[in-house]
Amino acid sequence: MKSHTVRTYKSAEKLAREDQLAWKIASVAVDDVPLDADVVEMIGNRIIDNAAVAAASLARHPVASARAQAQAHPYMPGATVFGLPAAARVSPEWAAWANGVAVRELDFHDTFLAADYSHPGDNIPPILAVAQHCGLSGQQLAKGIATGYEIQVDLVKGICLHEHKIDHIAHLGPSAAAGIGTALGLPTEVIYQAVQQALHVTTTTRQSRKGEISSWKAYAPAFAGKMAVEAVDRVMRGEGAPSPAWEGEDGFIAYLLSGPKAEYAVPLPERGEAKRAIMDTYTKEHSAEYQSQALIDLARRMGPKIGDLSRVKDIVIHTSHHTHYVIGTGANDPQKMDPAASRETLDHSIMYIFAVALEDGGWHHERSYAPERANRPGTIALWHKISTVEDPAWTRRYHSRDPREKAFGGRVVVTLQDGSVIEDELAVADAHPLGARPFARPDYVRKFRTLADGIVAAAEQDRFISCVERLEELRPDELAGLTFTVDAAKIGPAAARGIFDWIGGRGRTA
């Protein structure tokens, strides 16, 4: 890996294209290096992981709405949409949209945390949609996904967005555009322009993850993927982009990040170096914000030691800056302590999550968020006894570049009514590559079968898994197999009609 310094340049300095971050990203995207076997295996794992959480979310309202919007844009050859028959193709940007929402709705797929935050699996829906529409092979798809992961992870390592309240999809748009460029074998110039366009149109604020968190939290990454598809299409037609997007005098760094005098260091693979960033990422065993994964496992471990939870006086979670200020009491969000809060808000409340995990000895992607669960008097009482504090040691470990030291957990101190103290700590989740039970292919398959149970027929589950197992061997006509079809009754009620259903002054009939 080579570290690249990125800073603002005045227009008069005329920064050469080859010295711009977007060009360097495009150069990585066009570098056609072979994929390592473990990388291909992990790409397959994450395709399975995405499908698992999509299956569990099919009937949820935001997913139904996005799917209905996609169905209003049928197109051939087009791309597939989770839950629909493989022959029901839609325009690729709308497939990326619908599938992106399905993958993101439950906040239950993979993660990478460094200087900023990300869910790199969000790269897969737009790259897969374009691959299906354009008749690419499984190998071309895999190479595109490897690039998407590489660029997003490298941007997340080098550029912090959240301190300026910019949402992390500003790293996803460029990475997805780069991945699409790799899959299609586009030239450097085209990818360079598309990466910049994607950055320009996917820069939004973190209010989507603050206060009364809405369904837009799931839609935001899908929007970035859709914008990436459209950016690549425009540039392929000869259109350009605001340039230089990151380094410009009135650009991203100068006015949205740390200002004209700031410097960032972004690591990128050197020419001929394998794209392995996906191996630095990790999935979730539990359907909750990643910083809660280790703490759920810790609650599971501490519950039996505490015993009767009514004896608890207070619980203090000593953790990183991110956990304290984003999902802890440091966020100063009263909604995080509100039993009437949305699922999306409860997912970002470690106080609620830790209380429920202590009581239940684990976590469930639906039951743990149910309104009746959040409104139990005992849960509310325990929930309001929990607080977080930032511990510099955990913050340092959170930002460590050494994977053996990097940690996302914390130390929990439980004080009982009699003054006795029970404490324990856990650095990484059990499912983390360095955890007690690292996830491997059988775990991903089990997660898929668990979440798809009762939704996707067993034979269809088998067919999908078999297709993923042959990822690099898939012919263009077989790429449509990387989805699943369900009985129409499993998709849930039809979404309300919108503009795309409007015909002749009235809503389109079903």
TrEMBL record:
The keyword Repeat does not apply. Residues 20-264 form the MmgE/PrpD N-terminal domain. Keywords: Lyase. It comes from the Bacteria. One of its GO terms (molecular function) is lyase activity. Residues 286-472 form the MmgE/PrpD C-terminal domain. Belongs to the PrpD family. PANTHER family: 2-METHYLCITRATE DEHYDRATASE, 2-METHYLCITRATE DEHYDRATASE-RELATED. Monomer. This is 2-methylcitrate dehydratase. It comes from Mesorhizobium australicum.
